[in-house]
Specification:
The protein is α+β, with helices and mostly antiparallel strands and 127 residues long. It is built from six helices and four strands, in the order H-H-E-E-E-H-E-H-H-H. It has a single domain (9-114), classed as Endonuclease, Chain A (3-Layer(aba) Sandwich), CATH 3.40.960.10.
Length: 127
């Protein structure tokens, strides 16, 4: 099936290997199911975009934005990712760097407010 783009796995791998300080700090805080027992992955392709962190089981994408981000482009990106069934939450690099505990609390709040994942997916081994 031609999706009109090439899956950006090489770019995602490069981004994982060259994470920003904010991405590294947040990854240390959310990896290994440390937040609400949820598994996150780094630099996950969703369509033509690569999301910083994704909890596939919840369809939750987390973006960490620095000064290089463009509001219009980010809005289009968010609309596309949400159209794929994901909820997108965004944090600024400086907020992660200065208040990672507050960021984790916000992620936990968002997770708590989300509907429970479909239990049939877990029975089928798809998490």
């Amino acid at each position: 099936m031609d999706k009109g783009y090439t899956r950006p796995t090489a770019k995602a791998r490069a981004l994982r290997n060259n994470a920003t300080d904010a991405e590294r700090i947040l990854w240390c805080a959310i990896s290994a199911r440390k937040v609400s027992g949820v598994r996150f992955n780094r630099q996950v392709p969703i369509g033509p975009f690569i999301c910083d962190f994704v909890a596939r089981s919840l369809h939750l994408a987390i973006e960490v934005d620095g000064g290089q981000h463009n509001e219009d482009a980010d809005a289009n990106r968010t609309r596309y990712i949400e159209a794929q069934g994901f909820r997108v939450i965004r944090f600024w690099n400086n907020d992660v760097l200065s208040n990672v505990e507050g960021i984790i609390e916000e992620i936990e709040r968002v997770i708590a407010d989300m509907p429970s994942p479909d239990p049939s997916r877990k029975r089928e081994g798809r998490d």
